[in-house]
UniProtKB/TrEMBL annotation, chain A:
<dbReference type="InterPro" id="IPR027417">
    <property type="entry name" value="P-loop_NTPase"/>
</dbReference>
<comment type="similarity">
    <text>Belongs to the ABC transporter superfamily.</text>
</comment>
<feature type="domain" description="ABC transporter">
    <location>
        <begin position="9"/>
        <end position="259"/>
    </location>
</feature>
<dbReference type="InterPro" id="IPR013563">
    <property type="entry name" value="Oligopep_ABC_C"/>
</dbReference>
<keyword id="KW-0547">Nucleotide-binding</keyword>
<dbReference type="InterPro" id="IPR050319">
    <property type="entry name" value="ABC_transp_ATP-bind"/>
</dbReference>
<keyword id="KW-0813">Transport</keyword>
<dbReference type="Pfam" id="PF00005">
    <property type="entry name" value="ABC_tran"/>
</dbReference>
<protein>
    <submittedName>
        <fullName>ABC transporter ATP-binding protein</fullName>
    </submittedName>
</protein>
<dbReference type="GO" id="GO:0005524">
    <property type="term" value="F:ATP binding"/>
</dbReference>
<dbReference type="Pfam" id="PF08352">
    <property type="entry name" value="oligo_HPY"/>
</dbReference>
<dbReference type="InterPro" id="IPR003439">
    <property type="entry name" value="ABC_transporter-like_ATP-bd"/>
</dbReference>
<keyword id="KW-0067">ATP-binding</keyword>
<dbReference type="InterPro" id="IPR017871">
    <property type="entry name" value="ABC_transporter-like_CS"/>
</dbReference>
<dbReference type="InterPro" id="IPR003593">
    <property type="entry name" value="AAA+_ATPase"/>
</dbReference>
Amino acid sequence: MIAADRPVLKVEGLARHFVTKDFFGREVHRVRAVDGVSFSVAPGETLGLVGESGSGKSTTGRLILRLDDPTAGQVHFEGQEITGLGKGQLKAMRRRMQVVFQDPYSSLNPRMRVGEAVAEPLRAHRLFKTAAERRERVAQLFQRVGLDPRFAERLPHQFSGGQRQRVGIARAIAVEPKLIVADEPITALDVSIQAQIVNLFMDLQQEMGVAYLFIAHDLAMVRFLCHRVAVMLRGRIVEMASTEQLFADARHPYTQALISAMPIPDPDRELARQRIFYEAVTPPQEAQLQEVSPGHWVLSS
Amino acid sequence: MAPLLQVRDLTVRFDTMDGVVHAVSGVSYDLAAGETLAVVGESGSGKSVHVLAMMGLIPKPPGRIAGGQALFEGRDLLTLPEKEMRALRGGKIGMIFQDPMSSLNPVLTVGFQIVESLRKHIGLSKSAAWKRAAELLDLVGIAEPHRRVKQYPHQFSGGMRQRAMIAIGIACEPKLLIADEPTTALDVTVQAQILDLVRKLRKQLGMAVIWITHDMGVVAGIADNVQVMYGGRIQERGPVRAVFRDTRSAYTWGLLQSLPDHDAPAAAGVAGAHRLVQIPGYPPDMLRPPLGDPFAPRNRYATERCLTEVPPLVQAEGAAPGHLVAAWYDLRQVRATQGAALHGATA
């Protein structure tokens, strides 16, 4: 069982609050974007992070990547606490933790040839010695993600959305990371392309043993490709379980509402749908995650 | 009874620096009063552009209507003077878009924007219009409507703005509501509420709906008929159950196959146990549209003829009445002989 291994990522009591202060420096308002979030991801595992917009799922991803600093809590990556790391140490860590964003276009320099963009992380981590070696590595990476290596000379705008996302993935896997934080990686893609990219994620996991933190709102896709799922609501995890447990036996009313609202591409099932309604409320501060069965955690209410 | 809307051979082009974009080519269909039609497609399919063109909302230039008619209650929308078109938009034809912030005026209260529409299109008095505005917000499920009518769009949450947009869209009890991906940016729970709302309203008001989406789950939940577009053309059209159960276009079939199977066990895809059935290749470049069937280059069942000649949209053989397909191949044979192999081959 995967969970028995030392986790590649362990998050404890992670919080990010946005505080508004008045003229005298007194706190007038506090938004708890992320509030006491704890979970771990095993090597080679995919943990889905779902919830509505504003639930804190993307902020959680940014805190783990150190693109934002937490108000409280710790992030252990491969056993090392990384929230206090300086620039040099962060760079070493970033070789093993990568990110794939929703919009590949905004994360690529429009004037940089995509081959260069893929070579950039290799250069930053001195993973080639000669130009020939670099070209060969880039060509391998292009092939690995299903792009024609001859496309390396092109600029990002000469690609379709699906191709650009492949470039983004090639860049992320260039340094052979142990963890990829994927923030809505297929949301912006055409439906006919989504399956290609999802299959690519799965293949890479099998070959490289990379773990994913898969931040998404497409529940059908999450159900298909995640080992475990954590459901966030207003900065808190309200339920976390194996994917089977979560979809068969959701306990938190918000999870139940979410699953019951999932669109199903079948007219007869849509007709028979029984919706569960839940007026979302901010979970009380003192609420704790409780283990209702092995590996299945639900926030007490 | 004549259909509410008759679209005939609608063709839209964009003249750009790089050449002519073949956005919509020869689109024809009828929409009956009270019917809900889902138009499915992805970026570049022409699904949004064709309705924007009908409503006189594409910028000209670079856009131009290269041919066709769109008869609404017998009048051709494509040749209607702008003044009459303005009277229709927001009047007999309501519209809601994906991004409410781009259609709501940020410096006017939500109530004022509804009132403006009510006074202009149905000539309500000021006090009657304000009363109706609050009723409409209540109808779309916005709590405390009397307080909310006086608020500005930025004081509304995303889901509430979308509801406010719907309130404006239906304010004048339109005969036709056009909804362009209105729930795509919303969370699933909010999306489900909006779908419930539209289902309820169309019953109450007897309005026809054109619902543009890329989500087959939403289509299954809302449509009477579905029309699948690709490369500026209609690939398949018919009653929603017929299209889902007796699919005749390879593109529609590819889309349905590529979705995770709801009957498969949870986590079926982990550890590479199952793969999604993927459609190979990429959408066409509409500056250089394929010569024949636009989907042919990505269709493993395409014949020689598919590559060179555009198939007409005709009644599919042995299918439900009104189930049309544009295909030179017969997907029934493919499904019978290769359906099982398809899953195996790509797994």
